Amino acid sequence: MGKWKRSQAYADYIGFILTLNEGVKGKKLTFDYKISEAIEKLVALLNTLDRWIDETPPVDQPSRFGNKAYRTWYAKLDQEAENLVATVVPAHLAAAVPEVAVYLKEAVGNSTRIDYGTGHEAAFAAFLCCLCKIGVLRVDDQVAIVFKVFDRYLEVMRKLQKTYRMEPAGSQGVWGLDDFQFLPFIWGSSQLIDHPHLEPRHFVDEKAVSENHKDYMFLQCILFITEMKTGPFAEHSNQLWNISAVPSWSKVNQGLIRMYKAETTQPGLYWAQEVTGFCRPGPELASVAGRKTPFAAPPVLRLLHLCSFSPAQCLEKFPVIQHFKFGSLLPIHPVTSG
């Protein structure tokens, strides 16, 4: 995974996460921010996914978890993904649609296992990052990307999880931060930095969560956990319980970023399989935004651990840097080897 960590793709992805982290610092979800046409189109796309859930009710089956109706819902997305993305991407950037659509399909769970986890969440973040890279989303969309688009994405994913009783993908159980999400804890803790009253110790207080969850993404996550799990919080969410003892939100935020970086660079993790699964070469060139640019074929996602290459060999043979050669829009600095 050393090549992945040193790659431009890794720098772009982590830089994207940190740029949004800075953009939402100290702001409530109800903060007054600009909503561009691209943001509105992304929300409409997510609304379509939500409507399809209503149109695809769970089926009766012996197993309590992993309702097979999810596969019917996913099949519709698999068929319509490129059309959905095309409603967001302008016509002159149409060459990027097939590539970007792959990330959307990988962002909603696995149709074989009927599970969802942080690797799928990372695919959605990569989907948004790609839209920034090709210029669909711009610097002044930063707050709306988190507060409008990603927040709506979380609502749809939670509805999927509850409707189809999806299993956690690659969960570390009680020793993991959360069964399904990671990024809303990072951005949510940034929102709470320098809050005049709420401290980390308060997020395990039911009253504090109930009164403030509509303003803060972190507290929304805590509320969802308490709705989905039973028993003492310290037992079913031990990592979060430990975090509640950290003295300030800035330290919580810094610690979560370190955890996330560590999680995204461990070999063999599902997250890495989602974002770096380049197991075959694609067309040599594609015209994007008027430039001749290396443009990889849709990656064979989730199959890195099954292909004939080791993760390091796979990255060496098909460099992930191909996937992000659109020219950086966000203020991200390249990473040099060494």
From TrEMBL:
Subcellular location: Cytoplasm
Top class in the EC scheme: isomerase
Entry EC no(s): 5.2.1.8
Keywords: Cytoplasm, Isomerase, Rotamase
Catalytic reactions of this protein: [protein]-peptidylproline (omega=180) = [protein]-peptidylproline (omega=0)
Name of one Pfam family that matches: PTPA
Role description: PPIases accelerate the folding of proteins. It catalyzes the cis-trans isomerization of proline imidic peptide bonds in oligopeptides.
Family: Belongs to the PTPA-type PPIase family.
PANTHER family from the UniProt entry: SERINE/THREONINE-PROTEIN PHOSPHATASE 2A REGULATORY SUBUNIT B, SERINE_THREONINE-PROTEIN PHOSPHATASE 2A ACTIVATOR
Name of this chain's protein: Serine/threonine-protein phosphatase 2A activator
Organism, as annotated: Mesocricetus auratus (Golden hamster)
